[in-house]
Structure prediction request, 233 residues.
Amino acid sequence: MITLAFLSGTENIPLHAITQWRSELSAADQQRIALMKGEPRKTEFVVTRTLLQTLARNRLGVSAEVVSAVDTAPRLLTADGRSIACSISHSNKAILVGINTVGSIGVDVEHHQPRSVAKVVQRYFWPEGQTYFGNCNEAEGRAWFYRQWCIREALVKYQGDGNLFQLLGRPLNLSSGTIGLISQNNTRTVAVISSGGVRPELCFPKLDQNGQWEFSPLSPETDLAELTPLPNQ
Prediction:
């Protein structure tokens, strides 16, 4: 199974819930938090860890701890010793997490910035891509830019290495058995690269009155559509 959860508005999560989740993290995670600077970064870390663990429990039926080392992709370690691939991305108080029980996974979320992206395209993108971008109006060009950027960010995480700007310099080429999917609205783009022959699901978590996550397949608040294959352009 491949499952993703997208959460926006992390600043609206009650402080008492974050405090409770933080107290339930592992000793290793507690040590990592102690070294972090700034409460927003600490909150993001706590929410991400909790969201991943809850997603695994609710959608996969497994109890797991998120483990990671410096410069390595995180993994979910189950109580019976299994290692499950997972991926994490943050952007402008939004969090995207993904889990893949049948292969590898990389995810990315980007908040669309108001600044011009034309210089980035002209400097780093492959020639045919630059031509396509030049023929788009502003809205179309911005949406296209974030699709191309996000899917390659997800690919870097999927591979566990790689250079984003080198990938931007050539058309996307996924190996056999690897799927790239996109969901996009006017303000955000979500991307996932996965393997294993299973189509990923995109869920939207919401806190109930007891501070427990509930996962829904739709979210009118975010207006993100179903994950779809990346268009040729």
Notes: DSSP finds seven helices and eleven strands in the chain. The helical segments are 15-23, 27-35, 39-60, 118-124, 127-134, 138-159, 164-168. Residues 39-60 form the longest helix (22 residues).
